[in-house]
Amino acid sequence: MYATSRPTEETSDGDLLLEDRHRDKRPRTTIPYDPDVIQNFEMVIKLHKQSDRIAEGVEYLYEAAQTLPRLIGVFIQYNRVLVDGLASDGKDDEDEDDGNGHSGDMKWSTRWQVRYNFAVIKEYLPGFEEHTEYLRQRPDLVTKVAKWMTTVAGKVRGSDITRIKTLAFKFAKLGFRT
User: Does the predicted model carry a pTM greater than 0.85?
Assistant: First the structure.
């Protein structure tokens, strides 16, 4: 049935089955993880309607992702933050540390953006902190999550502007000046 050089097993009704390790195309890992959490991340990325996310029980991830732009800013490079943050676990190199937890001249830089924002993402995105080891093995999923988070951040900007637009017009008509 299947063209493969791998050994196969025959079932009782004569069908040939590939070994289990060849059925799943996901990378094999010995790092413990909760498959439900990873499946929820994959699911929320695919679902665009709120009713679908509620029906699948993943709306909480979307809501958590909506809070991130309000906590860390709306123009964050999520792909860089997630990739670099996972690579270094959100920490700087030991040799750059002055012993007090401070590095160098303490100017804001991409390194600090990654360090700070990765810590916030780990804290506020449910299941992310517990699965950082597993996510290091799944760069494809990390890229999808980063793209999804960027999309969510754009929607948050739009909804925030719409929400305050009427107040801004009201203050403008009243002649309030700052």
Answer: no
